[in-house]
């Protein structure tokens, strides 16, 4: 079931070294887990830095530019500060759930990352129900946020947690239905195959009208899923202070913060996989060169992430009833019609 | 199912303390919200966290000294506050100030109004969740503050007015800088509309939210843009012109809707009107003295004096009771924010938490002016 498509040579070498199939597997999985933890932190820190720089340019200022080249180490310094801070909590908090919540959020983000294909060679977990696995795991993250809101024993946190509940559950539906739409086009759930099918034309062009609608819906739903403006009611700064993580400090807070950015990366990655051909190069210009996938994947994901950031630094925040109206009265019907439309397109062979 | 709900899961109203430390209360104001889920059932206000007994302090200060304290009331319209006291004392002493002073005061007041509204616009955006607006508002504000700094040395609490005139003459760059600013603002103010006013989310957040009709607006003693958003014509500059307002053409902006979006539009349009006032005056600053000589110790004749001006937030009034001493017997400031805030519970009832923030933002309060 587990397909480790990376570095067969290393596998052979380790096998020769240990002479034990199971031992090699365990060693490999540990190494990969460590590598991904590192990657996780690096992506998180880079995205925080990018967000602040982008925000700076949108807001007529510079953003971090003192620590390291163009301020690259600023987030590292901030992370160090957070590590050194005391972990405080409220007196009457439900201690167990309160401590558990940040790990819930970060672990689900980390698990979801295992199916992300960074290039043809680098994908840990090419499971045959790939995209389905992605939605099922990422929707677990909401539990962590909800727990944090509930266990903090703070009304602001509680309101934030309640808002998460209604928002995530609603928009989960849209993300799911968009993925169903694209699966109708691809005919497979496996991520490597979805990408392989886009060898000649990306899905956004293959499915033209329907895929375009799906893409727009996905952009909105993914923004809502990651709790970013205009859907950041969960931590609405001007209303709830910091929402569900009001009472968290130090690394516990950093986990929430990091998970938010990782979730944004994951959403962008899944959008890239579903619509823009994952790590494939445009027109196959670097088709033969190994590891060029990383380059193209990074470029595409950064583009989508930039769009998310653009939303965040441009739009005001929606109100809680408006969020539900948008989902249940507009996005969901559009999605349902779009699924039928996509099915028709595929059935009549109108795709490119 | 119904039985299960009523027996085991109950909903109950709860109280939420918003403030005194809360990002949306613009200072130290405490709102007590009685909530049903997200819906505001009732709203109570708790004031007085920055009470400094300024009115009482005024009873032990001479008239020129009182002017300095008024800076700290509504610090965003400090010039207008100063002007109100200066005008009241001048009226009491029968001092006629030169035309130049009148024009300078008017221009400074209008610059202050634009800078205050620009800041309000930025903070408004931030309260609604559009953080970028804040920086754009500050862009215009900085230019105005630079103009202030050149002429009177201070950027916010200017202390520029004094009894009988203004403290310093205009800086030689003043006219050119104001002209540059007008040109800059005419180009940049449309960006405010692009970024927020025309944004569908922003409109939906404000339209129909926190409406108050004309009758209730008058009953609550609202003034300034907050009242004009409900269609109340209450611009002191029009009704009781002071300084140089009788010699400039400008429109009083009113909108009949009474909701948050109407209040928002009033302020946006007022910035344009202020620009036009500045434009009319900038080339017509009369020559002459910037102050008249007054006695060293000012003693108002016994009696009471009232002077009101239109500050950036509404009608700012100064009521001085004098017994003929060099200190006033009693000073009372009629602050626009206090009256405006009184309507909040009427406006916010039945709306959601997020709306309370939006409504509070469109009332545009400055807490030190409320507590005094």
Question: How does this structure look, described?
Answer:
The complex is a heterodimer of chains A (352) and B (372). Chain A is an all-alpha fold. Chain A is 67% helix and 0% strand. The longest helix of chain A has 38 residues, at 21-58. Chain A starts with 7 loop residues before the first helix and ends in a 5-residue tail after the last helix. Chain B is of the alpha+beta class and 372 residues long. Chain B has a single domain (54-371), classed as Orthogonal Bundle (Cytochrome-c3 Hydrogenase, chain B), CATH 1.10.645.10. In chain B, strand 6 and strand 7 (314-322) form a beta hairpin. The longest helix of chain B has 30 residues, at 99-128. Chain B starts with a helix and ends with a helix. The chains are: A mainly alpha (352), B alpha+beta (372).
Query: What is the ordering of alpha helices and beta strands of chain A?
Result: HHHHHHHHHHHHHH
Shape of chain A: globular
Number of strands of chain A: 0
**Cα-atom Rg of chain B, whole angstroms?**
22 Å
Chain-averaged pLDDT of chain B? 87
**Residue windows where pLDDT falls under 50 for at least 5 positions of chain B:** none
Q: Quick one: biggest sheet of chain B?
A: 3 strands, antiparallel
Question: Care to count the β-strands of chain B?
Answer: 8
Q: Kindly report the average pLDDT value of chain A.
A: 84
How many distinct folded domains of chain B? 1
Number of helices of chain B: 16
Question: Radius of gyration of chain A from the CA trace?
Answer: 21 Å
Category from helices, strands and their pairing of chain B: alpha+beta
